[in-house]
Design brief:
- The structure is a single chain.
- The protein is mainly alpha-helical.
- The chain folds into 2 domains: 62 residues, Winged helix-like DNA-binding domain superfamily/Winged helix DNA-binding domain (Arc Repressor Mutant, subunit A); 44 residues.
- Helices cover 55% and strands 8% of the residues.
- It has 6 helices and 3 strands, in the order H-E-H-H-E-E-H-H-H.
- A hairpin with a 6-residue loop joins strand 2 and strand 3.
- It is elongated.
Length: 130
């Protein structure tokens, strides 16, 4: 390892790798995925076990080496973080307005499409869409 990580940095890196993985991974595979800043195997195993206890990862017992997978997909994790931030806001309307105003056009269109798919979008003039 080239330097000391900030608190929570290894956990975040492991979750990013697991959320991007197509299948559960071993601790050894996760460690390699963190190159060039590779932590000790015991450190990876300790963080994975803490994440398992916290309900953030699942461990699948396999003879010789366990497999690990994120409990949440990347999109679910992001959505939960956004909802948590919104719930913590003292002015949800203002927070949503600021958020929507800060989106680039492609993200704004993706949000409109998601609202349509959820049956929640209203046209800019206030009339319901069908």
């Amino acid at each position: 390892m080239t330097g000391r990580r900030q608190r929570g940095e290894l956990k975040a890196a492991l979750l990013r790798v697991l959320r991007g993985a197509e299948k559960p991974m071993t601790a050894r595979e996760l460690r390699i995925a963190l190159e060039p800043d590779v932590p000790a195997m015991t450190t990876v195993l300790t963080v994975l076990d803490r994440m398992r206890v916290a309900g953030e990862v699942e461990r699948f017992d396999r003879p010789g080496e366990n497999l690990y997978a994120s409990v949440k997909s990347d999109s679910r994790y992001t959505a939960d973080a956004m909802l948590t931030a919104l719930l913590d806001s003292s002015d949800r309307g203002a927070a949503l307005l600021r958020f929507a105003g800060d989106l680039d056009e492609s993200d704004a269109e993706a949000l409109r499409a998601a609202l349509r798919a959820a049956g929640r979008e209203r046209a800019v003039d206030g009339s319901a869409t069908t």
